[in-house]
Design goal:
seven-stranded mixed sheet; alpha/beta; 7 strands; 7 helices
Length: 187
């Protein structure tokens, strides 16, 4: 088959390091809600929201707080890495974005939602090192958004990755996310 259609086979079958890329979206907002829903529903051991505000997850589906609490009760590690709402980095980013729905407001929405899930075991920390990159992990799959200068998160591109090999793209981003978590401040 490769002799007859070598270009077709090479473009249809991923053999190199890009085989961990499931999908690419030109905008985070272009990723269907059904992808986020399935990733959360299928996750059993690791759920990591490493976005600077993470506010949008509360609008994606009904009862997401209860779903997260249930996942934590069933043994999943559920974590939120957020920007500090009153930090200088947050204020500087707000000036760049220059939108009415400020970053600090979006962070406070997430903090408020998390506060409504008392004693759930869901962890959260503050970090400013992840402003230019969001990592959302669901067991062995993740969504990664490299933030483009001057754009809000939903306007930046996004990669959907699946772990298929050691030290591949998935592991590179997972290692980065864990380092940020380890350096983050507990509220």
């Amino acid at each position: 088959m490769e002799q007859i259609w070598p270009d077709a086979v090479k473009s249809a079958v991923k053999l190199g390091p890009d085989r961990e890329i499931v999908s690419v979206y030109p905008y985070r907002a272009a990723c269907p809600t059904s992808v986020w829903v399935k990733l959360l529903d299928d996750a059993r051991s690791e759920i990591y929201y490493g976005g600077y505000t993470n506010y949008f997850i509360w609008q994606q589906r009904p009862r997401v707080a209860q779903i997260l609490a249930n996942k934590a009760a069933e043994g999943a590690r559920v974590r939120f890495l957020l920007g500090a709402p009153d930090s200088e980095v947050t204020r500087a980013r707000e000036a760049v974005e220059d939108v009415a729905f400020t970053i600090s407001t979006r962070i406070r929405i997430t903090l408020d939602e998390l506060a409504r899930i008392p004693d759930s075991g869901i962890e959260h920390r503050f970090s400013e090192g992840h402003l230019p990159l969001s990592v959302f992990r669901f067991d062995n799959q993740m969504l990664v958004t490299p933030h483009l200068h001057g754009l809000v998160g939903h306007d930046s591109p996004m990669l959907h990755l699946r772990k298929l090999q050691p030290e591949g793209l998935f592991d590179r981003f997972a290692t980065h996310a864990e380092a940020l978590w380890d350096d983050a401040v507990q509220p």
